[in-house]
């Protein structure tokens, strides 16, 4: 089981969805992430750069014909941070339910 | 962390689950696979009807080998699009089983249709049964797989 660890870098909505998408995939192309997250090129580049700087994702430029395509993938560090963050969110939700369950069990 | 309420945490978890579900929706096979299968079905139907037995056997063998080669790369369902590769954990192992099930079912339907057409006195029953199978797999293959994947996901 992953130890909870709230991560301020991941928590903002866009980065959380970005990390969740990459956690469910081996890799995703820039165009896919842009469409799914409904971001502009510059906004997505900024989010990817922040996550890459933290070591949470890797990006790779691939030449496809005459076009460069950018692929992003989550790193082991990023997966640990993401899993820990999700565990922390689950712990917060569970803690919010606790008083009710305590009352109902007593 | 203290400033996150359980409601906000719950909403964040829903966003995580939604992102995962969107990736899971990408599980499937490339459109080209279904068109190639339809072409193969049609060719086998025509060859089975019009060609000598040795050619029927050779064509069936070639079809089987070609499909096995394609299948080893594609049947996991993780490469439907070139923009994303679904992780093995999210894709699971159900896609290959479902696709093979679809193909087995379609073989039975094609044979049944061929026998029915033959009994009815139709000319080239194998060819017409092949046309039927090709139409089902070419036009309906992706949709049949999608429906069955969703059905399995709910169970």
Describe the structure.
The complex is a heterodimer of chains A (106) and B (155). Chain A has one domain: Winged helix-like DNA-binding domain superfamily/Winged helix DNA-binding domain (Arc Repressor Mutant, subunit A). Chain A is 58% helix and 20% strand. Chain A has four helices and three strands; from the N terminus they run H-E-H-H-E-E-H. Chain A has a three-stranded antiparallel beta sheet with strand order 1-3-2. In chain A, a hairpin with a 2-residue loop joins strand 2 and strand 3. The two termini of chain A are 29 Å apart. Chain B is built from six helices and one strand; from the N terminus they run H-H-H-E-H-H-H. Chain B has helices spanning 6-24, 31-50, 53-74, 88-91, 94-119, 125-154, and one strand at residues 84-86. Chain B has one domain. In chain B, helix 2 packs antiparallel against helix 6. Helices cover 78% and strands 2% of the residues of chain B. The longest helix of chain B has 30 residues, at 125-154.
Layout: helices, strands, pairs:
The complex is a heterodimer of chains A (106) and B (155).
Chain A: H1 13-23, E1 25-29, H2 30-37, H3 41-53, E2 57-64, E3 67-74, H4 76-105
Antiparallel strand pairs in A: 1-3, 2-3
Chain B: H1 6-24, H2 31-50, H3 53-74, E1 84-86, H4 88-91, H5 94-119, H6 125-154
Helix pairs in contact in B: 2-3, 2-6, 5-6
Organism (chain A): Actinomycetospora endophytica
Protein name (chain A): Transcriptional regulator
Pfam families (chain A): HTH_34
């Amino acid at each position: 089981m992953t130890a909870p660890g709230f991560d301020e870098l991941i928590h903002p909505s866009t980065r959380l969805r970005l990390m969740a998408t990459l956690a469910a995939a081996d890799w995703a192309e820039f165009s896919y992430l842009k469409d799914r997250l409904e971001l502009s090129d510059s906004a997505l580049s900024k989010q990817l750069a922040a996550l890459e700087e933290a070591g949470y994702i890797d990006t790779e430029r691939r030449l496809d014909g005459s076009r460069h395509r950018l692929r992003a993938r989550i790193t082991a560090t990023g997966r640990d941070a993401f899993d820990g963050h999700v565990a922390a969110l689950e712990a917060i939700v569970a803690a919010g339910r606790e008083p009710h369950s305590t009352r109902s069990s007593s | 962390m203290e400033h996150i309420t359980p409601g906000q945490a719950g909403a964040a978890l829903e966003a995580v689950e939604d992102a995962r579900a969107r990736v899971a929706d990408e599980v499937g096979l490339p459109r080209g696979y279904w068109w190639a299968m339809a072409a193969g079905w049609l060719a086998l139907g025509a060859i089975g009807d019009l060609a000598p037995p040795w050619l029927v056997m050779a064509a069936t063998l070639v079809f089987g080998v070609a499909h096995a080669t394609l299948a080893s790369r594609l049947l996991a369902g993780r490469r439907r699009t070139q923009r994303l590769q679904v992780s093995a954990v999210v894709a699971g192992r159900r896609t290959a089983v479902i696709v093979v099930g679809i193909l087995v079912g379609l073989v039975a339907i094609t044979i049944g249709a061929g026998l029915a057409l033959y009994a009815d006195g139709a000319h080239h029953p194998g060819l017409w049964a092949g046309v039927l199978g090709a139409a089902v797999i070419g036009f309906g293959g992706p949709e049949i797989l999608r429906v069955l994947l969703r059905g399995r996901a709910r169970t």
